[in-house]
Amino acid sequence: MKNKRFISVMVVVVLICAAATYIAYAKAGTEEDPVVTLSYINDVLKQEMTFKVVEVPAGKLIIGDTGTEMVLRMGKGSILATAKGGVADLTAGNDLPNGSSIPANHYLLIPYNDGRGLSVTTDSLIMVKGSYEIK
Questions:
Q1: What distance in Å separates the CA atoms of residue 134 and residue 63, rounded to the nearest whole number?
Q2: Alpha-helix residue ranges (DSSP H) falling in 26-64
Q3: Which CATH superfamily is domain 46-134 in?
Q4: Per the CB 3.0–4.6 Å rule, which of 20, 68, 93, 98 could disulfide with 64?
Q5: For 59-101, what is each residue's pLDDT tens digit?
Q6: Which residues are CB-contacts of 118 (< 8 A; sequence separation ≥ 6)?
Q7: With contact defined as beta carbons under 8 Å apart, do 49 and 82 qualify?
Q8: Dist CA 15 CA 31 (whole Å)
Q9: Bridge-partner residues for 69, per DSSP?
Q10: How far is 66 from 85, CA to CA, in rounded Å?
Q11: What is the distance between the alpha carbons of residues 75 and 132, in angstroms, rounded to a whole number?
């Protein structure tokens, strides 16, 4: 009986030592699979995931990159679309064609980087998440 207990205790000790060795030599991350730190999330990702309020003067265009999200908060204007399609209105669930009025407070998505965006006719405030260019 004492022999079985001794063997059981030794097996547990060996397993604990093996686990401790594995943990001690395990890498926290690699170049192919890096560890994401809290400071990276706070400094980079939060900024990319937050809307910016952009002032766009009358007569200017705001062109979005692929995946850019926009919400017209103040002002008026029209949609800039291309032959490949319009701007996705995620609030209404439809595609806005070239020249149609920008609906206020609708969640708009630029699906492709090919010159799509908004053309404002009055000074406007647009919430933007993603890359954009004002022309």
A1: 6
A2: 38-40, 46-48
A3: Jelly Rolls (2.60.120.10)
A4: 68
A5: 999 999 999 999 999 999 999 999 899 999 999 999 999 999 9
A6: 56, 61, 62, 70, 72, 77, 78, 79, 80, 87, 102, 108, 124, 126
A7: no
A8: 30
A9: 109, 129
A10: 13
A11: 18
